[in-house]
């Protein structure tokens, strides 16, 4: 595992316009400079950063479910800097099952208080939380206890009728497919539930289905940070290109403003989503399918 190094001042300056409110310089504790950006986003939602690494041909993995390292060590350090700036890190269950990620912050100087909350969207509770790296780090006081977001057993959930948060210390309910088949999860509900629990900023790292969904819902996203690696994966790789609405003659979304910066051999593109189309309706998860974001569509 490569060492996580501190970012240069120029790299932090490049990222600063796209960080959540209250973002800090890890070395000094000073608040990072950022412009005032007008936003009509619902106050019930946290600040959302969507970030991922891709090849030049728009692939994020060699094959569904296959862990693939695309970016270099310099952008790995950037990832941990971004984690330092967010209250939570969210991935889908496909990534959690395939990679068993730690979802912690290893940026130089980060303490237990700086660790983000690991969050896994797991509609049908496939992820073995008790055996995960996230739970191990929590037991070692090196990370915060992970949360699972799932479908509630009934519509009487005190938090939200569309999703339920299970903390790592909660008894794990035993759901069956029949118990949840008519109870879809909405992305807006997921984000509202996190905000309700005190999460003011969330960094979403994938995988493919999660990225596709949120690129089709740009009104829910505040910043998008993409690492472009100078490589081609080729046909058969896992693409994150979102589907356009039928007969659409415009882009699904664009970035405006947008900035670029070179990290080692990688090029990082950062911007705020701009969506010329009317805000789309919230996507729901297919009750018959889990949120396996590594499945190529």
UniProtKB/TrEMBL annotation:
- What keywords sit in the KW lines? NADP, Oxidoreductase, Riboflavin biosynthesis
Catalysis: reaction(s): 2,5-diamino-6-(1-D-ribitylamino)pyrimidin-4(3H)-one 5'-phosphate + NAD(+) = 2,5-diamino-6-(1-D-ribosylamino)pyrimidin-4(3H)-one 5'-phosphate + NADH + H(+); 2,5-diamino-6-(1-D-ribitylamino)pyrimidin-4(3H)-one 5'-phosphate + NADP(+) = 2,5-diamino-6-(1-D-ribosylamino)pyrimidin-4(3H)-one 5'-phosphate + NADPH + H(+)
Query: Residue limits of the Bacterial bifunctional deaminase-reductase C-terminal domain?
Result: 46-268
Q: Which GO terms describe its molecular function?
A: 5-amino-6-(5-phosphoribosylamino)uracil reductase activity
GO biological process terms on file: riboflavin biosynthetic process
Instruction: Answer yes or no on keyword Oxidoreductase.
Output: yes
Top EC class for this record: oxidoreductase
Q: What Enzyme Commission number(s) does the record list for this chain?
A: 1.1.1.302
The record ties this protein, via Pfam families, to: RibD_C
* Entry keyword annotation includes NADP: yes
UniProt pathway = Cofactor biosynthesis; riboflavin biosynthesis
Family, as annotated: Belongs to the HTP reductase family.
The job of this chain, per UniProt, is described as:
Catalyzes an early step in riboflavin biosynthesis, the NADPH-dependent reduction of the ribose side chain of 2,5-diamino-6-ribosylamino-4(3H)-pyrimidinone 5'-phosphate, yielding 2,5-diamino-6-ribitylamino-4(3H)-pyrimidinone 5'-phosphate.
- Which PANTHER family does the record match to this protein? 2,5-DIAMINO-6-RIBOSYLAMINO-4(3H)-PYRIMIDINONE 5'-PHOSPHATE REDUCTASE, DIHYDROFOLATE REDUCTASE FAMILY PROTEIN (AFU_ORTHOLOGUE AFUA_8G06820)
What protein name does the entry list? 2,5-diamino-6-ribosylamino-4(3H)-pyrimidinone 5'-phosphate reductase
